Structures are given as C-alpha cells and as structure tokens.
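Running this now, will post back.
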Amino acid sequence: MLAVPPRWAGCSSRRDALPVEFLSDDQASAYGRFPGAGFSRAELERYFFLDDVDRAWIEPKRREHNKLGFAVQLATVRYAGRFLDDPLDGVPVELVEYLAEQLQIGDPSCVKSYGERDKTRLEHLWEIRQADGWQEFSEVEAELGEWVEGGSGTGRRARQPD
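Update: finished.
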C-alpha cells in the first residue's frame, strides 16, 4: 500500500496513467540503505552469510581492513541493491562484526581504515560489479524503456501505431 497517493498526470483515465510519485519522502530517503533498527543474529545469518566462494574471493585482499571493507561492500549491494557512496555510512555495527567473525578478523574496527585509499574502494566496487553482474541503471535505462513500451510482462499486447 502506498503511503502517499500517486499523482496522475496528463492521462484521460487512471488505468493508463503512470504514477509520478510512488514513494513518500521518507521512503525515498530510506531506499537502498540499512534499517535503523539493525539485525538479529538470525537475520545476519540469513542475509549476510559468506559462503566458500565469497571467502575465497575475499582472501587474496592484502590487509584486514580491505578484506572487511570488500565484504561490507559485497553485503551491502546484495542486500540493498546498490553501493553506498560511503561504503561504511549507515552500516550497522553488528553487520561489520558478523562479517569480521566469518573472516576471522579479530578487530572489526579496522574497517575504519578502508576508505583511506579511494582507489582500492573503487577497484573493489568494479570487481564486485563485474563478477556479480551489477549494472548502473543508466546503462540499461533505454532497454527498460523499450521493454515497458512493448507491454512486456503486463499480459497486454503493446499498442500498435496508427
């Protein structure tokens, strides 16, 4: 259910209209971020478990803060569907501690050093994007528009030009 009723612009019928606004300001600002309440142990295990492939991927990183920072970026994009501008901004402490525990890193606070070398952070971001297949929306926006215009997935046929 929508918190704010959508505004329908330039449409003769509501059925053909697209919502101009579909998230409230609060919902939009919370999008792609971690919840303020944090996570239970069961939620951490469900959403942020690093499997053998993940750990083998992380292991070659040189320093503990890079291993943990990489794991935080990996967990963030898999959970929130986006990378954060600051990879540690708003990340719950219990998540960092859980990832550190899995990587056998004794001092989770070492992750504070992760942002010191911006190039490393960006290299990790690109590595994750390439390996997991993440794309910037701007790269696929035209493809999505064509899909929507064609009526794909709606069960309706696309309107044919007159």
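The chain is about 45% helix and 0% strand. More later if anyone needs it.
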